[in-house]
Write a structure and sequence with these properties.
Order of helices and strands: HHHHHHHHHH
Number of strands: 0
Mean pLDDT: 87
Strand content: under 5%
Structural class: mainly alpha
Radius of gyration: 25 Å
Shape: globular
Low-confidence stretches: 9-21
Number of helices: 10
Helix content: 55-70%
């Protein structure tokens, strides 16, 4: 017989195939973020900061001037300040709640923009042209806050910068980054089968059902349109068009899995509006022509 040593038998434990192949890479139950609680926190914080900034800006103007001028530019300045603070506060608070980066949590996905930027920009131009054309056939208010801001070349440039750069980023993060997935998650939770198999699916995947995404797109577009109701003098025609625009942006967000894509389309949409105004007014030099 051979005198060779008998190899030692090593016990091999079975892998947990419910999650990752390697148990060391198993990160536990799927995280459904942002959920409805996160969305409520975001919008509560935004509401507080918008009102706080309005109070600070108007108070500062009142201190320096004996009579507070009722100029829409003051409201624009306070809104811009509030948007910046909301983004900064969110980028600090939510990564600590989610235990992941803010952009990852809202599914920013900049790579999708790199791959589809030309489609997003072309879609934004077409969507803007279609909405501006549709407005000609619907009842619109004679004047609005938007029109009051387009009085001087300086205010027109400030409004254009706000509408093209800051507003799309903040509003898309709010409505497509927070509210859309939060409503979809709430829908899936309420419609979940209360069985061991149903709970197991919930724990293993954070993907949303098609019906949940459709529900979220329809209902998240309502507050998006209402956000702009004061700017449009509560006219149902422009608000209805804006609701349709929001649904399209939701579709882009869902289809590309990227808030960055909906931001680019939103920014291009607004840019097209101001490009038309710029050309029609001779470089914002003859804004009086717009009211004729």
């Amino acid at each position: 017989m051979s005198n060779l040593p008998i190899p030692e038998v090593v016990e091999v434990k079975a892998l947990d195939i419910q999650h990752d192949t390697d148990p060391a890479q198993d990160h536990g139950p799927a995280k459904h973020i942002p959920h409805l609680g996160h969305a409520v926190l975001f919008f509560a914080m935004a509401f507080f900061l918008v009102n706080l900034c309005a109070l600070i800006v108007f108070s500062a103007v009142h201190i320096h001037l004996e009579t507070m001028p009722q100029h829409p530019g003051i409201a624009l300045a306070s809104q811009a300040l509030a948007y910046v603070l909301v983004l900064a506060a969110s980028a600090w608070i939510f990564p600590r709640l989610w235990e992941r980066s803010f952009l990852h949590g809202i599914q920013w996905n900049a790579l999708a923009v790199h791959r589809r930027w030309y489609w997003m920009m072309a879609g934004g131009v077409l969507l803007s042209v279609a909405s501006q054309t549709a407005e000609r056939f619907l009842p619109t208010p004679p004047t609005s806050i938007f029109d009051n801001l387009l009085k001087t070349q300086h205010s027109a440039w400030l409004l254009a910068a706000f509408a093209v750069l800051l507003a799309p980023v903040t509003e898309e993060i709010a409505f497509r980054g927070f509210l859309l997935p939060a409503l979809a998650t709430a829908y899936d939770w309420l419609s979940l089968e209360r069985t061991p198999a149903g709970f197991e699916r919930w724990q293993n995947s954070s993907l949303h059902s098609t019906s949940a995404l459709l529900f979220a797109a329809i209902f998240s577009s309502v507050p998006f349109a209402l956000l702009h109701s004061d700017q449009l003098s509560h006219a149902w025609g422009p608000l209805g068009i804006l609701y349709g625009v929001s649904v399209v942006l939701c579709f882009v967000r869902i289809r590309t899995h990227s808030v960055a894509c909906s931001v680019l389309m939103h920014a291009t949409y607004n840019f097209t509006i101001f490009a038309v105004i710029y050309i029609s007014s001779g470089g914002f030099h003859h804004l009086d022509k717009l009211s004729r």
